[in-house]
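1st attempt posting a full record on here, be nice pls
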Amino acid sequence: MHTVYVLLDIFFVIFHTSLTLFNALGWAWKKTRVWNLVTLLLTGSSWLFLGRIVGVPGYCPFTDWHFSVLRKLGKTNLPNSYLKYLFDRITGLNIDSTLVDRVTLIVFVAALAVSVFLNLRDKILSKR
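the predicted structure (as tokens):
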């Protein structure tokens, strides 16, 4: 059973990190812009609306599921943020959670703004 959780951990690291990078950068390629906007809107909705429902601001079900797997693997004292967990795991440091949350929000808002702008621009230009 331990092997299943190790494989799930690897899956979540790859999947969740890829999704996070796609949210931040998926607007850069015309072919992925619409999907980037969709994933950004789903992410924001999760943070806002699911967060209110479950009582955890910034709630992400992928973080919740991954951290459940990590607890099965004996990990304790997990942070509230997947990105804090990831940065700490990669660097071996204990990066300030407030800093990670602020940078995450800034990158998210910037990516959303750029994605909305470029998707609207593409839509307008396609009508010409």
